[in-house]
Amino acid sequence: MKKKLLLLLLFFSIISASFANNFTTPGTGVKWSLDDLVVNSGGDVTGSGNLFLVNDTITISVNDTLSITTDATLQFFTATYLAVNGVLIIDPPTGVLFTAQNTATRYLGMRMDFSNGSILRKLTFEYANSLRIFDCSPVIDQCIFRLNSPLTSFGNGAISLTRSKALITNSQFVNNQRAAITGGANINNAPRIDNCLFQANNSLNGNVPQINMGPTGADTMFILNSQILDGPIMGGGIGFLPIGTVNAVVTGNIIKNNRYGIVFNGGSNINSLISYNVIEGNNIQNDPNLGGSGINFTGGSTAGAQNSIVTGNVIKDNLWGITIQGRTRPNLGNLLNADTSDNGKNRFINNNNATTPHTDLYNNTIDPISAQGNFWNTTTQAEIEDKIFHQPDNAALGLVDYADFTLPIGLVNLTANKVAENVVLQWQTATEGNSDRFEVEKSRDGNIFQKTGTVAAAGNSSSYRNYSFTDLFAATGTGTLFYRLKMIDKDNSFTYSPVVSVKVTTGNVLSKVYPAVINSASQLVIEINSSINQPAIIQFFSADGKLIATTRKALAKGFNRLTDISKAELPKGVILMRISTIDETRSFSIIQQ
After folding, report:
1. Which one of 75, 111, 181, 399 has the fewest CB atoms closer than 10 angstroms to its CB?
2. Domain, as residue range, for 562
3. pLDDT value at position 476?
4. Do 402 and 427 belong to one domain?
5. What is the DSSP string of 145-207?
6. Is the pTM above the cut of 0.85?
């Protein structure tokens, strides 16, 4: 019996040892690949081709680099993680997936320490606990963070920051169980977040926003051109609750359908610019006693505690427009100083709740508030007064100065229609004041928008003006396209139009090939909307029909933009292109100079 017991103990010790190697690269300045880890890790990384199993924690030492530049899937064993003390480069043609071997038990994720040279591009990071970033500022671009959890002490957000100024661009954060990006309440972080999608994070329904930050220190945090959408009942959009100094710029975002939009909680430690955002429909809890503000300023014990400027925003359909508590005294519009960056230009539209109906602005402080140069969805002063709760409603409160209320561009009748292979946008303005141009923005998912054209505006007009824009060859793909106008004044202030959509389903997948004339310095671009993951075969023929070259590309479902297409072997003159997918085959002509 003792002999059997010893054998069993030996067996389990061998099994445990096989998952306790915690392989660490030697730190000799070597660039490692996944195949190198398979060969050298003693079983901690296994697999080949595009599929690898990570069976124990792997550490990339200082001076070493792990480079993943081919499409690959890494499946991590429970309670393991990737520790990056050196450099991690992820930059594949299509994508790298970090996921769990068992999605029920998950894995810890990744920890990066002092890893400033790291670049994460086209990484999908799922079923982990967190990406922890300490004392470094990696580039995170075109990544997807989804379905991550806070169920261990490893990290509390999909990305958890500690003394980081990470650059986070063109990425998506969807259905993570806690905040998408978080920083400690007393730890300085100043990431730059640009053109990202945050949707339905905090799925465990805790009392946290989708972006949950503390102080920034002497640096400035930027949240730009992003969309923060569809939080749970208890989830907010953006929150700053610092023990320390905050310098923050929140500009050009859509913050919609959360419990609240933005909250700044603090006193003289808060310095913020909140400009040209659309803050709409943040009312999902539907309890005005617990939330529902488009923007909430709270805290401070002395007058004018916060240095916050609010300008150019659309604040619409929230339970409250802006609520002010404590002694924060934000600047909502000041036309009396030489500075034009605080000239109001906010639009308050239909912010309403049952407790205090039609409250675009609630000044629940003893301080006066400057809110000059804004538009209150009416030009009648008595109606504006009804939308603001302040001293006339309660003598103990401060007075709101809403002088010089303005009327912005009066946009009417924005439409988008499919015409042959094109999409034609048409719109009309009833009034214009100091307008400069319209930038047409397009999206294939209704979330991430990109500029696709510009139309000059009239400037000043009190009569109806008609405009149109044609998006060439946009209607040759499949699915639905979404459009909006960025309406820009001569001082570069702007507002957004409502979003319109057009179905362009034609049975075709090919969207666009350009330019028609190429040379050694130009780049050939092929845009394809694919209904499924599939290959595309690109063939080049001479004018007399002789096959010159063939290229194979992998298409992901949705929009693909192919640019790495070699032209070196193409002769000068007319070239015929044939692009074949499962869905269709189409031919085009180009000219090689």
Report:
1. 399
2. 510-592
3. 62
4. no
5. EES----STT-SEEEEEES---EEES-EEES-SSEEEEE-TTS----EEES-EEES--TT--S
6. no
